[in-house]
Every structure is written in C-alpha cells, then in structure tokens.
Design a protein that fits this description.
The complex is a heterodimer of chains A (284) and B (277). Chain A is mostly helical and 284 residues long. Chain A has helices at residues 2-13, 19-48, 50-58, 60-93, 99-105, 108-111, 114-125, 130-135, 146-156, 159-171, 175-182, 187-216, 219-225, 235-244, 248-283. Chain A folds into two domains: 1-48; 50-283, MetI-like (MetI-like fold). Chain A is 81% helix and 0% strand. The longest helix of chain A is centred in the last third of the chain and has 36 residues, at 248-283. By secondary structure, chain B is an all-alpha fold. Chains A and B meet through helix 1, helix 2, helix 4, helix 5 and helix 6 of A and helix 1, helix 2, helix 4, helix 5 and helix 6 of B. Chain A: Belongs to the binding-protein-dependent transport system permease family. CysTW subfamily. Chain A: One of its GO terms (cellular component) is plasma membrane.
Chain lengths: 284, 277
C-alpha cells in the first residue's frame, strides 16, 4: 500500500520535463563551486597527519588566536542575545512613531559590506573618532583590543536573533498571556514563565547563528583589531598569514578546524530549528 | 495586529506606560549608537573635506578601476547564479528523488562557512601546489590572483541566494499550472517562460538583488584569492582596505560611501519588494 501511495505521489511530478537538465546544472554547479574546493581542503588536511595537525593546533600562537576568536564571539553573542531579544520584543509588541524605520535599520548590518563596517567602526573608536574621543580620556581603549574585535563581531551579526525571534513572537497566541494577567501575574513573571519558554527554541537558533557568524567574521574584524600576534589576531587571519608564508599545512589545519566548528554549529542550529517547528506545531 | 490591544502591558495599568516607554527608549538609543551613528559617520568622513575632494577621491585611477572590477565580477556572477538558482529550484520543487535533502543541505553550506575558509579552499585547489595547480600551470590557465579566481569565490559565497528565495515559493505554488500546460502540449521552455517565470519573477528579482549586494561587498574570500595587485585585482572592498592601510582615510571613506549608498538602495528595494511578493 505504501508503494502504491509513493508511486502515486511520484508519478504526477515526473510529468514535467527538464529533470535531467536542471539536475545536471545543479549538480555541476554545486560540485564545481562548492564541493571541489572543500574536498581540496579536506584532502590537504588528511595529508598533514594527526601528529603534525595536533602540533599546529596546540602551538601557542594558534591557541591564542582560537581563544581570542572564541571569547570575542561569545561576548558578541551575549550582547546580541540581549539586544536582539529587546529589539524583537519592542518591534512586535509596541506601536510607536518610526517603528518601520527601526525595523528596516535591523537589516543594515547584513546589507553593509563587512569591510565598510570595519572601516567605520575602527575610525569611530580611534582617538580622533566620535566614540574614541569620548572613551579614550576615560581610559577605555576599544581599537586594537578584544573589545574592538567583539564589537565588530557583534555589529555584523545583529540581525540573527532579532529576525529569528520576531516571527515566533508575532505568531504567539496572546490568550496565555491574558490568562496569566487575569491570574494576577506580574508582567515580568509572564514574560519569564509564558513568553520566554515559547520563543526559547527560536531564540537559541538565533544565538547559535549569531555565534557561528561571529566566529567566521573577517572583514569587519581585521580593520579594528590591529592584528597583533598572540593578542588581537583572530584564527581565520592566522590561517591567511600561514598561507602568505607558504605554510599550506598550517593554513589548512586551522581552516579545517574552523570548518568543523562551523559544521557542528550548523547541525546544532538545524536540530534546534526542527525543535522550534515542533513546538510551533504543538501550540497551533 | 489586534492582539496589540490586549497585550499584557495594556491590561496591567500599573505598568502600562513606564515599562513600554523604557524599553522603546532603550531600543532607540541602542540602535542609534550601534547602527545609525556608524552609518552617518561614513558619509560624514567621506564628505568632511567637501564635494571636490570626494569626487577627486572617487576618480582616482585605483578606486575607479576597483569600481569597474567590482561591477564586472557582479555582472558575471549574478546571471550565473540566477541560472543555477532557477535550475536548482525547478529540480528540487518539481521532482521527488533520493538524496533531495542532502542536495538541499549542500546548497545551503556556503551560508555557514566563513568566506575566508572558502578563499583558503580555492587557494588549496588552484594554487601552485594545489590539486589542480600543476595541470593549470601546464595549460597556462591563470585562475588565482586574477579575475577568474575572484569570480569563482564570489560564486561560492553567493550561491544559495537565488535558490533560497525561489524554492519556497515554487514549492508553495505547486505544479498544477505547469502540468496543465504539459497536457496542452507546451514544451519545457514554453512552460518555464509563460507559466513559471511570471509566477516567480518577484522572488527571482529579490534573490538577484540580494545576490548582487553580497557579490559587490564580498571581502574575506576575495582577499585570499585576489593577490591584491594594485590597479589589477582589487575589488572595491579590497581597495578600501588598501587605502586604509595607506593611511588615506578620506579616500577609504569615499570608496566606502559608494558601497554604503548601494547598500541603502538595496534596503529600499528589499522593503518595496517584500511588500510586492
């Protein structure tokens, strides 16, 4: 019976022409543009051998770069978790003049090329920039420090949390909140016990995406970081430096590690996404 | 939108004014500090020395060449990407086949990979000691540190953009209209041009706009494969970095303001098209 059902589902679809052509184009494009280069990296990585790989990844400069990248990305993500949630809440729940402009502004960090963002931020925080002129007399240095790296990462990943939480918050049935109000719950309690659990899966997807993007951010960071070895050098920049030194093994090892972290985060966000969808389905 | 009236804040008179006002105020201040000021600052610095200096900076040969090269890369990349996007959306939405989910994941992969890693992959593939390096050398084909390498990396980075917009729409629309066209004896190309294309044109245009914006602004991946040869392989974002490192900040901001203006145009187009779709 299942085979009949499956056949019935497949047959009408194959009525349309163009399967061979479109499939051929798709597979060639993905193969040549995406898979072949990735295969080159994996093959190069396999060539290095586990011992050499381990030595490269535990060298002090590599460890310092990884530590900086992970800590700055964590700082950027923490900022965006709070800011993103605030923006999603304000944009969905309140009406005020200029709301649509505020909503559109959330897309700026994705629309703006990262090199432009990096240039603007590093100049803003430089001693003669608008922010630097205010902060430096107070003894706060942002450029050439981890704060600058984190700020650049935060800027380029602003939209993730906002744009994942926003639709879920919009779909949230207000009757549960109304019930909580009639039961005399404090607004903050309602948020914590009713709203937050409902948006948590989507929020976690946004946070994961934001963290992944921060780890991979390059353009905005290299402008503001100063790129001092052992201090403000991010992992992907170190990989590029190794390439420029013709140390292909070093570059491949670091790039492969970053690739694996990115893939783990991709799987995590897909699993979270599936959970978020399940949750939504149950609520409806 | 009607549930706004009965939002919890509205039912609890004690909190109804203060908390929303506080949150809205906080949102406005933070967005002003983190998004608006950097944006304004770009134009402020670009035009700080006046229009004359701005125009001179834009017309400087290096920057002019970078603008031309960036446009060229986008003009090659975007049409190829549209072709791929439509083909992939057709294959994935109109047919059932084994490995469909895997193919979808593979198409999405460039989104989760840092462009800088993509650049390194391309260098390891086409570089002198790379997989294809010796063969390319023998055939005297130059890919790295030249336009083909820049185009290929940009294709990698932008490859999911068109599919992502067109595929969900084609899936939602279903294929009844196209099947009807088949029974009426239409050819594949006729079906696509007369039935499918009119249905997906806004999503297609939207994807193409996002793809162009990304192609024009790509920095990390391109910086690895371009070799940064002055006046030859510098795209506009790379030219910005070069000017910045040369301490020509005014020139860097002039070049950056061109890209910023483009980004703002894209945002406006996006808003308009989202309403249309």
């Amino acid at each position: 019976m299942t085979t009949v059902a499956a056949a019935a589902r497949i047959r009408p679809k194959r009525v349309l022409p163009g399967f061979g052509l479109t499939m051929g184009v798709t597979l060639s494009y993905v193969g040549i543009i995406v898979l072949l280069p990735l295969a080159a990296l994996v093959l190069k990585g396999a060539e290095i051998g586990p011992e050499r790989f381990f030595a490269i990844m535990t060298a002090p400069r590599t460890l310092a770069a990884l530590k900086l990248t992970l800590s700055a990305a964590a700082m950027a993500t923490a900022f965006n978790a709070v800011y993103g949630l605030l923006m999603a809440w304000v944009l969905v729940r309140y009406d005020f003049p200029g709301k649509r402009i505020l909503d559109a502004l959330m897309d700026i960090p994705f629309a703006l090329p990262t090199a432009v963002a990096g240039l603007a931020l590093s100049a803003l925080f430089a001693g003669n920039g608008w922010y630097g002129a205010l902060l430096e007399p107070m003894g706060i240095q942002v450029i050439f420090t981890i704060w600058g790296v984190a700020f650049a990462m935060a800027f380029t990943s602003i939209p993730f949390v906002v744009r994942t939480v926003q639709p879920v918050l919009e779909d949230l049935d207000p009757q549960y909140e109304d019930a909580a109000v009639t039961l005399g719950a404090h607004p903050f309690t309602i948020f914590r016990r009713v709203v937050f659990p409902a948006i948590l899966p989507a929020f976690m997807v946004g946070v994961t995406l934001s963290f992944a993007r921060s780890l991979g951010e390059f353009g905005a960071v290299v402008f503001i970081a100063g790129n001092l070895p052992m201090k403000t050098e991010i992992a992907s920049l170190l990989a590029v430096i190794r390439l420029e030194e013709y140390d292909y093994n070093g570059a491949a090892a670091i790039a492969l590690t970053l690739l694996m972290i990115a893939l783990v985060l991709l799987v995590a966000s897909n699993l979270l996404q599936a959970r978020a969808l399940r949750y939504k389905g149950r609520g409806a | 939108m009607s549930h706004l009236d009965v939002a919890p804040g509205a039912l609890a008179p004690r909190e109804s004014r203060t908390v929303p006002r506080l949150l809205i105020g906080l949102a406005l201040v933070m967005t002003a500090l983190f998004v608006v000021v950097p944006l304004v600052y770009i134009f402020h610095r670009a035009f700080a020395a006046g229009w004359g200096v701005f125009v001179r900076n834009i017309l400087e040969p290096g920057t002019l060449h970078a603008i031309w090269l960036t446009a060229l890369v986008a003009l090659i990349t975007v049409p190829l990407n549209i072709g791929f996007g439509v083909a992939a959306a057709w294959a994935l939405s109109r047919f059932e086949f084994r490995g469909r989910k895997t193919l979808l994941t593979l198409i999405e992969i460039p989104f989760s990979i840092s462009p800088i890693i993509a650049g390194i992959c391309y260098l390891l593939l086409y570089g002198r000691t790379g997989l294809l390096g010796p063969w390319l050398n023998e055939m005297d084909i130059k890919i790295l540190f030249a336009v083909p390498g820049i185009v290929l990396v940009t294709m990698f980075v932008t490859s999911p953009f068109v599919v992502r917009e067109v595929l969900p729409l084609m899936q939602a629309q279903g294929s009844e209209q196209e099947q009807a066209a088949v029974t009426l004896g239409a050819s594949g190309w006729q079906i696509f041009r007369r039935v499918t294309l009119p249905n997906i044109r806004w999503a297609l245009l939207y994807g193409a706009v996002l793809c162009s914006a990304r192609a024009v602004g790509e920095f990390g991946g391109v910086s690895v494969v371009s070799g940064s040869i002055r006046g030859q392989t510098l795209t506009l974002p790379l030219q910005i970095e070069l000017l910045f490192n040369d301490l020509n900040t005014v020139g860097a901001f002039a070049a950056a303001s061109v890209l910023t203006l483009l980004a703002l145009v894209v945002l406006v187009l996006k808003t308009v098209m989202e309403a249309r779709r």
